[in-house]
Amino acid sequence: MTTHNDDVDWDSWPVADYLRENYREVHPSDAAIIAHHSAFYRRFRPGAIARSVEFGAGPTSTR
User: Fold this and answer.
1) How far is CA 36 from CA 9, 30, 31, 41, 50, in A?
2) Which end of the chain is more exposed for a tag (fewer CB within 10 A), N or C?
């Protein structure tokens, strides 16, 4: 069975638990991503990039 976004009861989603689990501490996998992205952006002079978009699966992608 396929679940679509509007099939989920988002009002009952435990937001506080999610934030606590994923954002209270920086996880090693997140620290690695931050280090990687920081190294990439340091190659450009300040102000050289007006906008950028990072496509990722979210904070739970590696856990």
Assistant:
1) 35, 10, 9, 9, 20
2) N
Each residue of 7-50: pLDDT tens digit? 989 899 899 998 888 788 988 988 998 899 899 999 999 999 99
Predicted TM-score (pTM) above 0.70 = no
**Any alpha helices (H) in 1-63, and if so which ranges?**
15-23, 28-41
- Number of other residues whose CB lies within 10 A of the CB of residue 27: 16
Q: How many residues does the chain have?
A: 63
d(CA 10, CA 24): 22
Structure tokens belonging to residue 52: 């950028």
